[in-house]
Amino acid sequence: MKTRGEIIVATADAALLKLLSDALAGDARVVAAETKPSALLAARSASAELALLDARLSPPIEFLQKLRRVNPALGFVLMLGVDEEELAVEAARAAAYDVLIRPMEPAHARFRIRVALEKHSRALEERAYRVALEERLNNRTEEVMHSRDRIKTQFVNTIRALEKALQAKNVYTEGHSRRVAEKAVEVARAMGVARDLTRHIELGALFHDIGKIGIRDEVLNKAGKLTESEYEHIKTHPLVAEQILSPIEELRPIVDIVKYEHERWDGGGYPAGLKGEAIPLGARLIAIADAWDSMVFDRVYRKALSHEAALAELEKHAGTQFDPTCVAAFCRLERERLSSPTTRRMLPGS
């Protein structure tokens, strides 16, 4: 066996120290430690590889743990007397590589210590491999996260570009999504909706028209009544929105909100014909805010309605097109706003 690092023999037994020094001659340099302080000092050496601990340095297991804290790379073998064999289990639990029973035969001790050294070398190699692997995984994770963030940013930027393109297709769209988001969030908060869901509702409202980027200009901006085929074409925009938003993990919670905004409370909407509370709450709120905004602002096919007339329309369709509970909350908030003459004068369509 080639010369190894230092082996600390921690014992006050001079005869045992000589036996082990002679047995290990040529295999490793033996460092004698007759007391605990000298063993602790020896353990601090970077060359220390293995410590043979005499169990008579009581308490042996606690002392082993103390040495390990001083030098985590140190391996251990415990030397026990015939009346101390119960310590063998504790030594194994403390990750000692072996136990030697006193008195010991030199050749046998040398063989067992060689095996312990090999075990320790392998353990250190495995530890170094794990550390290197963890470092590589951490580096790889950072690369993946950086790449993921870059892709996410690209997707978000693409959606923003699509929004601008949609505004260019339809001037009405500019400002509409923001107003719908503000109304939907206001009602959600008044209804005590959880903060996370309220945030999803806000995002869903901001992106609720994004699918219209896939609608033909002549249909999107048509002033007159749509033909049946044109209406069927319009009805595809929630599915286009789903395709645009789904690739971004952070936006997946809002996909159903956007996709099902045109469902009706009575089940007569699209694209899935959902009914009642099967429609996501966010979609129900956005549908009301969207309808409100479309009524109180000018559209290509008609002039804006008064706020009182728009509220009457919402209430007329509560329970058929719209969730009646959400309509009641929306109308209550709007009437509270309208009760202020100053606020009323500032509102469009008044």
Record keyword descriptors for this entry:
alpha/beta; five-stranded parallel β-sheet; 350 residues; 8% strand
What do you see in this structure?
The chain is 57% helix and 8% strand. It is rod-shaped, with a radius of gyration of 39 Å. By secondary structure, the protein is of the alpha/beta class. The chain has a five-stranded parallel sheet with strand order 2-1-3-4-5, with helices on both faces.
Strands, helices and their partners?
Layout: E1 6-10, H1 14-23, E2 29-33, H2 36-43, E3 48-54, H3 60-70, E4 75-81, H4 87-93, E5 98-102, H5 106-169, H6 176-190, H7 195-206, H8 217-220, H9 228-234, H10 237-245, H11 255-259, H12 281-296, H13 307-316, H14 324-338, H15 341-346
Parallel strand pairs: 1-2, 1-3, 3-4, 4-5
Helix pairs in contact: 1-5, 2-3, 6-7, 6-12, 7-12, 12-13, 13-14
